[in-house]
Amino acid sequence: MNSGGGFLRRFLGKRLALAGLVFILLVNAAVLAMVFSPPAERDGIDLDNSLRPPSLGHPFGTDPFGRDVLSRTVRGSSTSLGVGFIARTFSLVIGLVLGVAAGYFGGRLDSFVMRLADITFAFPTLLLLIAIMAVVDPGLPSLVLALGIVGWAAIARLVRAQVLIYREREFVQAAKAAGAGHKTIIFKHILPQCISPVIVVYSLGLGMTVMAESSLSFLGLGIQPPAPSLGKMISSGIVFMRTAPWLTLFPGLALTLMVCSLNLVGDGVRDSLDPRLAVVRGAGRRL
Amino acid sequence: MIGAVLKFVLRRILLLAPILWGVVTVTFILMYVIPGDPVLTLVGERYDEETLEEMRRELGLDKPIPVQYFEYITRLARFDLGRSFVTGRPVTVSIMDRFPRTLLLAFSAMVIAVTAGLGIGGLAAWKRHPWLGHSLMTFSLVGVSIPVFWLGLLLIFLFSIKLSLLPPSGYGGGSLRYLIMPAVTLSFASMATVARVTRSGFLDVLGEDYIRTAKAKGLGNAVVVAKHGLRNALVPVITIVGTDFGSYLGGSVLTESIFGWPGLGRLILQSVFKRDFPMIQGAILFMALVFVIVNLIVDLSYGLVDPRVRTGRGGQ
């Protein structure tokens, strides 16, 4: 069993994972710094200064409206990060509930949930997202909902596999023999065994979720302007590729670094928490 | 022996039936929950109640849901996906027009991912420099983290705008000059993953007993590495290509819109903006079907590469 201190020590010992974590913290710090800076210095529209190349005052240059690309990149990154975490948590809740129910109660419920997971996996992820976003009202809640829905299946499969292992263990059987009800067995004996694999699969999926969000925003199906999002910034910069390439280069670089960091953190969490984590079908799936 | 193989194949195909039914049902439900009246989007600004009623009847939208569902399934059985709201053409015709181009793109991406991935990974395993291993790890990390659409734009920026070597967009009758950038873009993440598992697959197997036996028999090093290493690395590579094929299909929406490639992915995106629901529904259903079939082929090919899977003893 992993103790919390041991996990922290192992995680902090991994330089790459640490670098990823530091980058994510830096983004958050930058967001905080912006929140407390005077409003005038934020990304207000300033048409006298449109499409200025990178300079000391605007390290990432300015966009066609004269807005500071750096500020917008930071704000876009924080939106992506926030959407990623919330959507992933949503997937986690669905996956945990269905996975435990399927594994613990078995039978028809189990085959129903697992067929549902198979069906979710039968769709190429981005296409399922596009199909969902095509029929719901655009906006942040729909986006989080859609991202949450496509991510549940891998978590449910993992949780189910874990429950199946522990359901037959002696200590669970003993609790059952001692007269413990389903609730006690699930919450006191089985769920604690699912925590570390679930944390692992949660963090491994963060990078992909952020990537999915920015892809949808790039296509115009995700975060809607004027809210800044990295994907949308990149797509609106395309027409200026020849004259103002910084509009696409910097937000893209930030996005790549962010997904990279999340993936590194995910790998680090896996290696320090549960290196022999059973490979579940679909867990390693990319967007 | 042949009986066992046949049973294996049939079993896999039978397992697909409930999934296919589920996929069909999900696409039906998705398009049924469209907010507002699809007929309204269809007729646009000017309409009167009579036309609306007539169109609803024509589209079968006035019937109860179970009846609509039943009719949807029976139409599917005849390969009828309805007609586009925008062009009025049968959806199947549009799909068949566009899909070969998407398939060309996806297939090229797959070939690039496998050949380049096997090459890079095999090289890194054969020449065991630590820096080679490190750079491969970095490459595979960046490869899976870089967004497809940004990578595509970077390539356009570099090869079309700065170097003027390749056309930034277009189909060009499918000629190599037009194909190369979108295909590389689509293949990149997959290639990076293939390279990583190839290297570890090779390294794993090179310490095994049977490799020593093969070497003791007098086989040359290169032959041993190529034959046994490749065989061992092939199963995970097939897995990656199988799961990533979904990324090729989904990623085609991004790649095709960046490079102006007139395939099915771009058609899906255009249909989304035109709210052409039968087209979206049909195309997504079709893509899911392709993905399911590719995964079936992948599943079956395990049996060819690894005899343990075929006979049901041990293995995966």
Polypeptide structure, described:
The complex is a heterodimer of chains A (287) and B (316). Chain A is built from ten helices and no strands. With 287 residues, chain A is mostly helical. Chain A has one domain (4-34, 48-286): Orthogonal Bundle (MetI-like fold). Chain A starts with a helix and ends in a 14-residue tail after the last helix. Chain B is mainly alpha-helical. Chain B has a domain at 99-305: MetI-like fold (Orthogonal Bundle). In chain B, helix 5 packs across helix 8 and helix 10 packs parallel to helix 11. The longest helix of chain B has 39 residues, at 221-259. The mean pLDDT of chain B is 83. Classes of the chains: A mainly alpha (287), B mainly alpha (316). Chains A and B meet through helix 4, helix 5, helix 8, helix 9 and helix 10 of A and helix 1, helix 6, helix 7, helix 8 and helix 10 of B.
Name the features:
heterodimer, A: 287 residues, mainly alpha, MetI-like fold, 10 helices, elongated, B: 316 residues, 13 helices
Question: Any idea of the CATH class of the domain at 99-305 in chain B?
Answer: Mainly Alpha
Share in β-strands of chain B: under 5%
Count of helix runs of chain B: 13
Number of helices of chain A: 10
Assigned CATH architecture of chain A: Orthogonal Bundle
Largest sheet of chain B: none
**Structural class category of chain B:** mainly alpha
Q: What's the mean pLDDT score of chain B?
A: 83
- Helix content, binned percent of chain B: over 70%
Q: Uncertain regions of chain B: pLDDT < 50 for 5+ in a row?
A: none
Give the CATH superfamily of chain A: MetI-like
Supply the CATH class of chain A. Answer: Mainly Alpha
The dominant shape of chain A is: elongated
Name given to the CATH homologous superfamily of the domain at 99-305 in chain B: MetI-like
Work out the count of structural domains of chain A: 1
Q: Provide the gyration radius of chain A in Å.
A: 22 Å
**What is the helix fraction of residues of chain A, given as a range?**
over 70%
Largest sheet of chain A: none
Span between termini of chain A: 33 Å
What is the rounded distance between the termini of chain B? 20 Å
